[in-house]
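Review form for a predicted model. The reviewer records the input and the model, then writes brief findings.
Reviewer: anonymous (R2)
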Amino acid sequence: MNNIIVESLKESAALKEKCIVNIGNQIEDLADKITATYRNEGKVLIFGNGGSAADAQHFAGELMGHFSKDRPPLAAVALTTDSSVLTCISNDYNFDRIYERQLEGLARSGDLALGISTSGNSKNVVNALKKAREMGVYTVGLTGYQGGEMARYSDLLIAVPSRETTRIQEVHITVIHIICEILETGIKEQDS
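Model under review:
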């Protein structure tokens, strides 16, 4: 078998094993906080760039649709999806404000803002978390290594213990899937 395949799978598995100890409690805390947000009729606003934008959209889709069980939709918005809004804000202000400006219009106290950045230093994600915190919105950073600038503005930081973008992204999607599974299990238990 190709050595790249073997090494990639081994690295991914090893990092996920490490995450059990390093970020397992933070994943549980995030599931609890999102559950509380929904119980209080709040919504989850998610944002990031590139692959992290795709993860934001994936997460919002799983929450609004369903992950593996039929259940009512959970209010979630990926701030990465409206090209007219993104280009308007970029043109009228600048790209560093694309998520911050949307949060100003959409977020309310009781909501949860979740920024995704493997480096933790994406200016537009950092600006949005800072603005959300100023607005009294609970902030979550999903990132890598030590969290970069996002660490300063995240009420809850989930920092994957790696510096390698591809491996961090692999864990991010795993975290998103775990959160969805926990949420759906909790909803089904409430319905029973």
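Findings: The radius of gyration is 16 Å.
Further findings: The chain has a mean pLDDT of 95.
Recommendation: see findings above.
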